[in-house]
């Protein structure tokens, strides 16, 4: 990021070299020193603790279903709680609801904008939310009547000042959490469209978010182009924790099943695990031969495996505890843009710029 | 907002990261000591110097990065697709053939990273003009279209374009055949990638622009060991790791597993009932678990706790418009002294909650809800797990037979 030219302050007291650049260098030096000191205290890494754990054998996962029907890049997908239906959205504005098990399309909506980057299934299974370049998040109730025009029942819920990058229902159909290119996240009341809480703190576009599965269910994590992953209190709107170790945009964040940690995927071609109680990064998942950015990550049900969808069309499967790569999966013919494990952990689904979705098991 | 990468100038952060990494690989490949062995490759009757075969590249990648052949093929395929390496045989087909097909490294000034520093149209126009002259008008359809579009756009400098094209062609005629072939292949590969045929795979499509730049306690083993413990506990429940009974529906095409695990079933599966003992949250998150727990609490005469907790959840996640009405209901049923289902909250929390109720909002019940939640978690929940009710359910629970995979 290019910093603007700062004029020298014209006071007598100020030394010529007390410019913004100098102060920034100083703060960077202090940061490095601090990290060196912390390292001396022997912070433990996850793979060290997991040395005695049994390694994983060969994993054979294949494409079990291919969903064809989008006419352009698939950008996002989400599972229904019934473990077999999914909703997907694409660059040409189409949002499709599928029964992934039979590969039948059940509903289709054409949004009035292109690049529908976010879509989500409501917990009840009766509605879907989506948005993108229209800067909004809209909710469509799913009708049982195939002839009914879904677009007519559309409800506009969220309004941002830039593109919508991600959306998620909270524990019910009544609230939606959104993230946007305008650098903020927001919580909305679906019925009234009212803004319940907004979250400020990212210095650039926010690209992803995930809700915590914790007992108190009050926090969520977001990742952005400022390379930061922020944890927020949904009640107060405060950023309660922040992690900045990635070297490039964070495209995806996902909580570990227990809620004690979360994983992130970035354009710097690495995935990382952050422990919330230790308040630091505890694992990096990377390999010299992996060159392209990660677009999306998700855990298997036990949290032992981390699946990453990459911009070089592959899926890498990681042993979360040992930090090693267990498997690499080929199949898509263009970038993998979205990846989610099914609610009961029996499979995971990927969406790609090759216009298709695949279910793997 | 522009979406087309080729139309905008300036660096894209995303491109930088992976291009830098690919360049690292290319540099390593050309290292005089540890890099690839280059030799003369034969192309029909011409000998091309400083070339390598597809097979060489794959072998080198396998050795350097300790990967399998499939992955090496994939990575080297990317290097060709992005133009860092170009084919000498069949130059229009940018694929890596794992055989004796010859390839060369692209010259520095034609690396993808340099596209954005060119004034957009000039190099493309000169290339097409050259091709037009050489092939005497026999360009491909999409090239013809581009040619006429460019002609219209930079009409004022068209003479310059044609002059440059003629000059370059004349210079190339004076080169040795080997150099000429190499240069033609270089150029061909470069333009195939940077001005792809409509409908062809465009590797430089980077998606939407992201223009908005607006700016210690030591970790102990005991902190991190929870991940090891959690994964071990849930391993048998992870279908991708251990499979699931009777079979994984996606693999066997049999939905029995889902039928047996519907939200409400007459007899739950053993794994499911076991999971309720992992944490209080697991019990509450499962509708059947919650129901069973309620039955137990009713026997203990403390069911009002769970009812209260559920009512509070309903406020937290429900419609904004019904908050006031729901808070009143809760007050009437659970908090008023002498209420039928009065909950036992400590006096400090009760005072705070009653004060808050005067101005009801979504989180007004949070403190009281948490107090009751932890009460159930520490007291009723452990006793439920030891109860006959739970033990009998576990004993009766189904363990499905495994059916053969397809």
The termini of chain B sit apart by: 50 Å
Unreliable stretches of chain B (pLDDT < 50, length at least 5) are 1-11, 114-119
Tally the helices of chain B.
19
Total beta strands of chain A? 28
Round the Cα radius of gyration of chain B to an integer and report it.
35 Å
CATH homologous superfamily annotation of chain A:
YVTN repeat-like/Quinoprotein amine dehydrogenase
Write down the Rg of chain A. Answer: 21 Å
Identify the strand order in the major beta sheet of chain A.
Answer: 1-28-27-26
Beta-sheet strand percentage of chain A?
35-45%
Question: How many independent structural domains of chain A?
Answer: 1
Distance between the termini of chain A: 41 Å
Range of helix content of chain B: 55-70%
Average pLDDT, all residues of chain A: 90
State the CATH class of chain A: Mainly Beta
**Can you name the CATH architecture of chain A?**
7 Propeller
Sheet-strand content of chain B, in percent, reads: under 5%
Neighbour order of strands in the largest sheet of chain B: 1-2-4-3
Subunit structure (chain A): May interact with RGS9; this interaction stabilizes both proteins and increases RGS9 GTPase-activating protein (GAP) activity, hence accelerating the deactivation of D(2) dopamine receptor-mediated signaling.
Keywords (chain A): Repeat, Transducer, WD repeat
WD repeats (chain A): 67-108, 157-198, 199-242, 243-284, 294-328, 329-361
Protein name (chain A): G protein subunit beta 5
Explain how this protein is built.
Chain B: This is Regulator of G protein signaling 11. Chain B: Residues 279-394 form the RGS domain. Chain B: Keywords: Signal transduction inhibitor. The complex is a heterodimer of chains A (361) and B (406). Helices cover 7% and strands 44% of the residues of chain A. By secondary structure, chain A is mainly β. A 4-stranded antiparallel beta sheet of chain A has the order 1-28-27-26, with no helix packed on it. A 4-stranded antiparallel beta sheet of chain A has the order 2-3-4-5, with no helix packed on it. The radius of gyration of chain A is 21 Å and the shape is globular. Mean pLDDT of chain A is 90; it is low at 1-14. In chain B, a hairpin with a 2-residue loop joins strand 1 (39-43) and strand 2. Chain B has 19 helices and 4 strands. In chain B, 55% of the residues lie in helices and 5% in strands. The relative contact order of chain B is 0.07. Chains A and B meet through loops of A and helix 1, helix 3, helix 8, helix 9 and helix 10 of B.
């Amino acid at each position: 990021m290019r910093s603007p030219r700062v004029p020298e302050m014209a006071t007598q007291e100020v030394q010529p070299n007390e410019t913004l650049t100098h102060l920034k260098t100083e703060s960077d030096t202090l940061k490095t020193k601090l990290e060196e000191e912390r390292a001396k205290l022997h912070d433990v890494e996850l793979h060290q603790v997991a040395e005695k754990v049994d390694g994983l054998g060969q994993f054979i996962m294949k494409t079990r279903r291919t969903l064809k029907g989008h006419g352009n890049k698939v950008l996002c997908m989400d599972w229904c709680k019934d473990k077999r239906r999914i909703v997907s959205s694409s660059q040409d504005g189409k949002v499709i609801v599928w029964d992934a098990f039979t590969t039948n399309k059940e509903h289709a909506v054409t949004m009035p904008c292109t690049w529908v980057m976010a879509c989500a299934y409501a917990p009840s299974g009766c509605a879907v939310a989506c948005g993108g370049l229209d800067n909004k998040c809209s909710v469509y109730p799913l009708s049982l009547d195939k002839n009914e025009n879904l677009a007519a029942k559309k409800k506009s819920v969220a309004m941002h000042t830039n593109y919508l990058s991600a959306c998620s229902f909270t524990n019910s159909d009544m609230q939606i959490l959104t993230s946007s290119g305008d650098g903020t996240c927001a919580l909305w009341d679906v019925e009234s469209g009212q803004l319940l809480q907004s979250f400020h703190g990212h210095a650039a576009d926010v690209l992803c978010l995930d809700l915590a599965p914790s007992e108190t269910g009050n926090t969520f994590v977001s990742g952005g182009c400022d390379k930061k992953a922020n944890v927020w209190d949904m009640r107060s709107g405060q950023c309660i924790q922040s992690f900045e170790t990635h070297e490039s945009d964070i495209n995806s964040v996902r909580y570990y099943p227990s809620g004690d940690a979360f994983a992130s995927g970035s354009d710097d071609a690495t995935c990382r695990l952050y422990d919330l109680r230790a308040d630091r990064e505890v694992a990096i998942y990377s390999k010299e031969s992996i060159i392209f950015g990660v677009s999306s990550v998700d855990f298997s049900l036990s949290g032992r495996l981390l699946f990453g969808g990459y911009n070089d069309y592959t899926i890498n499967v990681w042993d979360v505890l040992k930090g090693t790569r267990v498997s690499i999966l080929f199949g898509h013919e263009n970038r993998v843009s979205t990846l989610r494990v099914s609610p009961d952990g029996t499979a995971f689904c990927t969406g790609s710029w090759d216009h298709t979705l695949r279910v793997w098991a | 907002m522009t979406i087309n990468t080729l139309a905008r100038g300036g660096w894209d952060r995303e491109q930088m990261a992976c291009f830098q990494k690919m360049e690292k690989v290319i540099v390593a490949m050309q290292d005089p000591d540890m890099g690839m062995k280059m030799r003369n490759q034969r192309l029909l009757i011409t000998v091309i110097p400083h070339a390598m075969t597809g097979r060489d590249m794959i072998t080198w990648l396998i050795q350097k990065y300790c990967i399998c052949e499939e992955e090496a093929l994939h990575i080297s395929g990317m290097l060709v697709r992005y133009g860092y390496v170009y084919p000498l045989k069949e130059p229009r087909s940018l694929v890596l053939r794992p055989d004796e097909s010859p390839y060369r490294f692209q010259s520095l000034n034609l690396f993808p990273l340099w596209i954005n520093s060119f004034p957009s149209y000039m190099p493309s126009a000169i290339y097409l003009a050259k091709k037009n002259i050489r092939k005497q008008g026999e360009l491909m359809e999409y090239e013809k279209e581009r040619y006429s579009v460019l002609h219209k756009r930079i009409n004022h400098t068209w003479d310059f374009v044609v002059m440059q094209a003629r000059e370059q062609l004349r210079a190339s005629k004076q080169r040795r055949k080997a150099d000429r072939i190499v240069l033609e292949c270089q150029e061909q590969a470069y333009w195939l990638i940077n001005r792809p045929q409509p409908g062809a795979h465009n590797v430089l499509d980077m998606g939407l622009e992201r223009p908005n730049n607006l700016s210690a306690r030591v970790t102990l083993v005991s902190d991190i060991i929870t991940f090891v413990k959690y994964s071990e506990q849930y391993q048998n429940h992870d279908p991708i790791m251990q499979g699931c009974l009777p079979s994984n529906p996606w693999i066997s095409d049999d939905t029995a597993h889902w039928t047996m695990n519907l939200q409400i079933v007459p007899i739950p599966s053993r794994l499911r009932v076991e999971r309720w003992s992992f944490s209080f949250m697991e019990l509450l998150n499962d509708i059947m678990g919650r129901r069973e727990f309620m039955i137990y609490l009713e026997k203990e005469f403390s069911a009002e706790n769970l009812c209260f907790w559920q009512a509070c959840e309903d406020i937290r996640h429900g419609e904004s418009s019904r908050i006031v009405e729901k808070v009143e209901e809760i007050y009437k049923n659970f908090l008023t002294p002498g209420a039928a289902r009065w909950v036992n909250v400590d006096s400090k929390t009760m005072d705070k909650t009653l004060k808050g109720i005067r101005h009801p909002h979504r989180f007004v019940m949070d403190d009281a809800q948490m107090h009751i939640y932890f009460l159930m978690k520490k007291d009723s929940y452990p006793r439920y797990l030891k109860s006959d009710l739970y033990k009998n359910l576990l004993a009766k629970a189904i363990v499905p037979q495994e059916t053969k995979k397809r």
